[in-house]
């Protein structure tokens, strides 16, 4: 990462953290090719923040265009320090950039906002004031509270997606997101000392979600805001970003082994669909039901493997090659089946259990063994 600082006009460049003041704010702005927006953003910050609150601005930039140069030029006219951290190897996308910015922040408060002017800079002092007043560790600028709106969310499709994602997310984390009407917002203030950046695992756009769920702030406040239209250019969000969001949700929800086991079980249950479909097709083609069962079962195993790889253990795959993981996974899945019958027999004949309860206990036992085996032998932590 290269970092450069630009101080006030005529002054030597200063490192952001050295000019920090208590009660002041570091505005963190993630940027990806925003050369048409950053000068106007700095102009509007200059207009509405420093007269009410001492500030510095830290851009964390992953651009491939001339955004850093434009920022440096525009910073000449700013009465506050402006820092550009340009990342050569962007990790974690937007969220990763924000975490880098929080690490570099030198003020008591950090306000995170987009670089495309969808978030009004005039609200920055208000967010900090709300945090001081409450007092709260996290203040969310919300589109979905009284007085807020999503005017800049173009098109019914995006509004529907945003609403559905918000609903899903809130139902997955009812306790942690209590009191947050807009957990998807990219505009918020957080007390610097309440954040432990090394505990965060940002993945894409929803960094507020990461802070609210994994960060466990003890008190949260909200301020309404009107989501504006983009000043220039286009949203950088893609379909890949949607898939990343899904993985982020699963990762957050399955941070404990117990939650991971439940997810593993749900994925396993969903495998019945391809399994039964396969069985239907193969027997319809005239195959004897025994080989059909065996083949169809492998279809279910493959389905489970794909989902487990994509969702549950996505960032725990690096230790083994994919065919090694697939082989081990299939071995464990089939061992589960092969083990079940002798286990039931053992429970019935040695322990005198009824067939039904023996089957239930055997199912649970092999499932737990399979989960523990998959965690330990296929995906190392
Ligand atoms: N450094 C860095 N790296 N910045 C990025 C990256 C990245 O990979 N991707 C996007 N950005 C920057 C953009 O340059 C912009 O300043 C800001 O992050 C938001 O990106 P947009 O592409 O404009 O996002 P959006 O308008 O679709 O989504 C915004 O609103 C959503 C609510 O509807 C974001 O704030 C989302 O977090 C928010 O959920
Ligand atoms: Mn935007």
TrEMBL record:
Subcellular locations according to the entry: Membrane
Keyword check for Ligase: no
TM region(s), chain numbering: 262-282, 288-308, 329-348, 360-380
CDD domains reported in the protein's UniProt record: DPM1_like
Entry-linked InterPro entries: DPM1-like (IPR039528), Glyco_trans_2-like (IPR001173), GtrA_DPMS_TM (IPR007267), Nucleotide-diphossugar_trans (IPR029044)
Domain of life: Bacteria
Topology with respect to the bilayer: Multi-pass membrane protein
Pfam families (alphabetical): Glycos_transf_2, GtrA_DPMS_TM
Gene Ontology MF annotations: dolichyl-phosphate beta-D-mannosyltransferase activity
GO cellular component: membrane
SUPFAM superfamilies: Nucleotide-diphospho-sugar transferases (SSF53448)
Domain GtrA/DPMS transmembrane: 264-378
Coiled-coil intervals: none
Keywords: Glycosyltransferase, Membrane, Transferase, Transmembrane, Transmembrane helix
Boundaries of every Glycosyltransferase 2-like domain copy: 26-195
One biological process term in Gene Ontology: protein O-linked glycosylation via mannose
PANTHER family attached to this UniProt entry: DOLICHOL-PHOSPHATE MANNOSYLTRANSFERASE SUBUNIT 1
Family: Belongs to the glycosyltransferase 2 family.
Protein name: Dolichol monophosphate mannose synthase
